[in-house]
Amino acid sequence: MSAIKAVCVYCASSTQVGAVYLDAAYELGQRMGRAGLELIYGGASIGLMGALARGVHAERGRVVGVLPKFFMQKNIRYDEADELIVTRDMRDRKATMDERADAFLVLPGGVGTLEEATEILSMVQLGLTAKPLVFINTDGFYDGLFAHFEKMVALRFAKDETMKMFANVETPTQAIDFIERFQPPELPGKWF
User: Fold this and answer.
1) What is the pLDDT of residues 27-41, one digit of tens each?
2) Cα(149)–Cα(133) distance, rounded to whole angstroms?
């Protein structure tokens, strides 16, 4: 039995994205709900965030939204959340999500999603967390990012092990399978 019970998912709140991304978010939510995995996420009702939360609830799963106080004025919160945590600011939000989660999944998203995911990647690199980090590369969305990571390794800005610090999968099913079987990789040591 997996030790993973709660999963933080980072993703877009944009309402302008293509259906392929919204469908993947909803499917991930359904898979999480069926697997009994609690969702920890940014608390919004719109974009991929909203599709994800609705997918979890479609399978009677539990949804925990974490919103910074200033987002409450934007009227985008997912009111159906089983638990809604309001934090002081974005830093508190990320810390709360990190504390509550046993694993991190990254769906397509914008600058905020990328910032959240790379912070976790940095924590893995520094040995500050051993929780799994999985990018769901829907429709090749993260191909450019992975190419940049490889360039950083090739130019010696990052160690070869960087590419082992996260998983790159194409589907929600593969992401759930990965975290359910996760064993922390043997890494030669911290960055310094």
Assistant:
1) 999 999 999 999 999
2) 15
Q: Identify whether the C-beta of residue 64 lies closer than 8 Å to the C-beta of residue 98.
A: no
Q: CA separation (Å) from 122 to 60, 128, 129, 190?
A: 34, 9, 9, 11
- 83's tokens: 């638990």
- Paired strand residues for 135: 106, 168
- β-partners of residue 41 are 65
Write the pLDDT tens digit of every residue in 131-150.
Answer: 999 999 999 999 999 999 99
| Residue 155 to residue 141: CA distance in whole angstroms | 23
Residue at 175: amino acid letter = A
CA distance 167 to 12: 19
Residues 6+ apart with CB under 8 A from 22: 47, 48, 51
Q: Residue 123 in contact with residue 150, Cβ under 8 Å?
A: no
- Which of 77, 34, 76, 75 is closest to 57 using CA atoms? 34
The strand pair at 63-68 and 133-136 is best described as unpaired
**Structural domain boundaries of the chain?**
6-180
Write the CATH number of the domain with boundaries 6-180: 3.40.50.450
Whole-angstrom Cα Rg for the chain: 16
Q: Is the pTM of this model over 0.90?
A: yes
